[in-house]
Predict the structure.
Amino acid sequence: MLGADHTWSPEQVAELLGDDYGDNPSRHSLGRDHGLVEFFWQRPGPRSPWAGTHFSVQAHRLRLRDPELVNRAIREHYGPFTGTVTFDEVAAVLTERGVSLAEVPYRPDPDEIRTYWQPGSRTMVHVVAGTYYGRAGDLYRVASSSTGIP
């Protein structure tokens, strides 16, 4: 996301995306919501530095059609986000770039979400399959994985 990845510190992400975010802290974890994009960290104790675990793009939020939902830095780089993004749009761009996806099981709700794995970037792409999470075929979420396991 604009060059940032799960290895960045909370301070580095804030420097890139700005200080307009919501924190979800606990003693050992921190989730930071920058609107469309969220970053997550863990640490063994309060004196230890944060270690990034993953980040995600919450694409399903685009259906709200709120231009302020997308972080200013992201809008300035990519332009306006006017609504949902379909998996077909994403798949076409990835195919053009020679990037493949493999479908993997989504055990929590297989009738409503389909999940694709990109091993080279260790990224999961979640797509609406039913009607509960939005319109079938819409991109739901893209998430990095620090574990490399889909």
Q: What stands out?
A: Residues 87-96 form the longest helix (10 residues). The mean pLDDT is 91. The chain has three helices and eight strands. The first strand starts at residue 22 and ends at 25.
